[in-house]
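ok so I'm stuck.
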Amino acid sequence: MFAEERQQLIVGLIAGSGRASVTDLAERFSITTETVRRDLAALETTGSVRRVHGGAVSADRFSTNEESILVRIVQRQPEKTRIAEAALALIPRDGTGSILIDAGSTTEALAALLATRMAATAASSEPGAELVVITHSLPIATKLSGEPGIALHLLGGKVRGITQAAVGQSTVEAARRIRPDIAFIGTNGIHAAFGLSTPDPEEAAVKAAFVHSARRIVVLADASKLDAETLVQFASLKDLDTVITDTNPSRELAEALADAGVEVVVA
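replied:
not stuck anymore, here's the structure
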């Protein structure tokens, strides 16, 4: 196989999964790691990929890249629905307790499923039973507002337009004063060494407060978030209890999650 052909295949693999490691590419094409590194260097020069430690990622995976919630909500919908269904199964059906739902497209899918379930079970629920739901996301609050059996608490702050979520010191302080049973957290990246990250420092501060406030931390992350690093870390893998995703993590990430004692659920 000519180098040009192999390099085009490498670009396709990285575009499909978002990332590829040097060792995996060497095994796949039966070439040395030095040859892989030369290929990646050539591809980076043309802007086809971006090299990172241990491999390469898609050229558009910069640490500050962030699409709006309106764009993300229509991406990877089947995968996000499967993740949301697995997360919904963790919420008690008796309509009691408290949960926190972080801003994000996959967590918004969870909120939609929760609203549907609460409406369907309202007639059979215990009188007066209410599930306390806390969020700082305007779209999530809209989906859950007025649903039977839900006591909705909306955390205030400055609304960040791209995510439609409240951020800032007042949001962080409010998060520190609560202790929900489960926090469902969204992330822009989950990485073996860097942990969980997001591009915006204010969003990161709120997410960090959520992680340190809840009794149980459940992260919802589709495959595009796996092995990704964005600008600001807000949690380590050891802070997590469960990760729900739609594909098996890479070997490196799977081992790091196992070492941190994190349960991985593939929906």
